[in-house]
Amino acid sequence: MKAALICAIVLGATAKGIHQAILEGHAYVKFFSSDGPDLRFEASPQDKPNKTAIMGDKLKASAADFTARVLGAFGGQPRTLLVLRDGVVVLSVPVTSNDLSFEFPVTVPGNYRLQLQRGSAIEALTNPITLEVPSVGAFAL
Question: Helix (H, G, I), strand (E, B), or coil: what is residue 73?
Answer without folding.
Answer: coil
